[in-house]
Structures are given as structure tokens and as C-alpha cells.
Inverse folding.
């Protein structure tokens, strides 16, 4: 997701917290019913404003962190969208993450929500998703994070899901969502991380060599 730089602004205590607890419990119950092959986890104690899809052994896991689940800016549709996006990493076809070919890339996950995910959730649980309300909720978080002020040209191709104004445009007009068979963005970031590690290791080796002189 886009929320790495967001600070947590949790809902208040008392009745507001109780209402959010009940909402999260209901949403997670619906997701477990609609997608029984996935494990859904709430890390309530974490202040991280994000959600994550990952594989643990033989299990495919979706985890939502407390900083996002209890953020005051998030409404029910925003939470549903965030969880569907992570489910999309597991179930979508198309572009793969360079770091893990078992998971779909960001744009593939978003396309899956629009093409299949929201409809499956509605069919299995009658829980609907308003993209407009979800976008409004998420936009408050991206504003807090300073996301999307300008497009970031990273790597051989710019991923529309990495630039919030473009991503928002695609979400409300799904026919504008281009299919990308290969995730150039995640591949570029993976190669960049490798290069940074090699540079760091090279500097460490150089310092050790100088210390022996």
C-alpha cells in the first residue's frame, strides 16, 4: 500500500473504539467466509499504518496492522479495500512481484479488486464496496503521507499503482486500468536493494582493509 510515512491517528477510546472493534471483527469474519483458503490476521498492537500479504510455510496470509485498522481516517470501505488489495496479491493473475513470484504486483492486485474481488465478497457475504468512499478514505491517508505529489519515475516503466493521482483515476474508471504482464517497478526496486547492499558491503570491506594497514 501507500502508507509507509503515515503517522497513526487512532480512533478515540470508549464507544468509538468499541464501534471500530466491532467493525473490524465483522469485516474479518466476512473475509474469512469469502476467502477460506487464506488466513487473516489483525496485529492490533502494531502502530504500522499498512496491511500486508505474505506466504508463511504452506499458508497464504493477509495481515492488517493496528495503525491502519484503527486509523481515524479509515472508514469501512477503506478497510475493505485495503484487505481486498492484499487478497489480490494472493489471487490475482498478471504481473508478479520481483521479490516473490507467488504474489501479484500492486497494479494486478488493484485490477483483481475491480474485476473479481469485490464481486466475490458481495456474493459470499453481501458486503459491498463503494470505491468512491474507499478512495475518499485512502486519499486522506495519502495526503498525510505526502504520497502522489508527483509521479516517481523509477525503473524502466512507471507503475500507475505507485502514483496515487493516477491510481485513483484508474480505481474510479476501471476501464482505464492497463494490464501489465510484468512488474518492472518491483524488479527495479529489488535490483536497487541488491546494489545498495553490495555498495554497503564494499564500503565495509574497504574500511576493514584500511584498518589493517
Amino acid at each position: 500500500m501507500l502508507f509507509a510515512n503515515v503517522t497513526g491517528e487512532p480512533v478515540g477510546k470508549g464507544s468509538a473504539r468499541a464501534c471500530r472493534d466491532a467493525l473490524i471483527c465483522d469485516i474479518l469474519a466476512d473475509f474469512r467466509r469469502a476467502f477460506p483458503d487464506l488466513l487473516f490476521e489483525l496485529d492490533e498492537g502494531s502502530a504500522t499504518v499498512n496491511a500486508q500479504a505474505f506466504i508463511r510455510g504452506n499458508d497464504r496470509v493477509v495481515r492488517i496492522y493496528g495503525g491502519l485498522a484503527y486509523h481515524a481516517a479509515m472508514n469501512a470501505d477503506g478497510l475493505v479495500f485495503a484487505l481486498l488489495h492484499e487478497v489480490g496479491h494472493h489471487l490475482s493473475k498478471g504481473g508478479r512481484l520481483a521479490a516473490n513470484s507467488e504474489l501479484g504486483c500492486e497494479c494486478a492486485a488493484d485490477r483483481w479488486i475491480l474485476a473479481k474481488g469485490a464481486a466475490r465478497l458481495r456474493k459470499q457475504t453481501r458486503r459491498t464496496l463503494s470505491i468512491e468512499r474507499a478512495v475518499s478514505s485512502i486519499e486522506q491517508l495519502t495526503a498525510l503521507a505526502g504520497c502522489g505529489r508527483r509521479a516517481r519515475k523509477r525503473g524502466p516503466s512507471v507503475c500507475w499503482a505507485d502514483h496515487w493521482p493516477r491510481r485513483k483515476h484508474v480505481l474510479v474508471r476501471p476501464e482505464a486500468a492497463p494490464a501489465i504482464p510484468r512488474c518492472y517497478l518491483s524488479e527495479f526496486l529489488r535490483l536497487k536493494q541488491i546494489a545498495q547492499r553490495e555498495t554497503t558491503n564494499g564500503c565495509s570491506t574497504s574500511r576493514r582493509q584500511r584498518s589493517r594497514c
